[in-house]
Amino acid sequence: MPESEAITMQRMPDTNPMPAMIPPPGTLLASLAIGVLVILMDLILTYSNPGAAYGVAGSVLILLWSLYMVSQIAVIGAIVNAVLGKRYDRRLIEALYRRPAAPARRARPGPSCSTCTTRASPTTGSATPRPSATSISR
Fold first, then answer.
1. What is the pTM of this model?
2. Which sequence spans correspond to the domains of the chain?
3. Which of 24, 28, 33 is nearest to 70 (CA)?
4. How crowded is residue 24: how many other Cβ atoms within 10 Å of its Cβ?
5. pLDDT per residue as tens digits for the range 51-72
6. Based on CB atoms within 10 Å of each CB, which residue in 71, 85, 97, 103 is the most buried?
């Protein structure tokens, strides 16, 4: 073996192929929905000419609407993956059992009406007097 090949074999990472993975269901759902959207956009633009009535503005609106729909489809696919991942991902379930989420903290009770005479200071937390409408003079 020539010296250059020996150095290359030492420096290069292992080339074992990664096993084939099944894509998450949200990804499949999103890709199929985007494909359907592209077909629908083609049909819409074939049978209705938005440039005839509104000029360039109609085409821009169709483009913006399609980008909006693609982003919504991507978000829905991510939500599907997140929900199913919480149910079926063994590593995530084991991690949640080892360290459960902390309970939600409740806000401190404070005055709930605008006519109260004291309020809590945001820096110290102690009550400071609030001037009433009669004590304000001009």
1. 0.52
2. 23-98
3. 33
4. 16
5. 677 777 777 888 899 999 999 9
6. 85
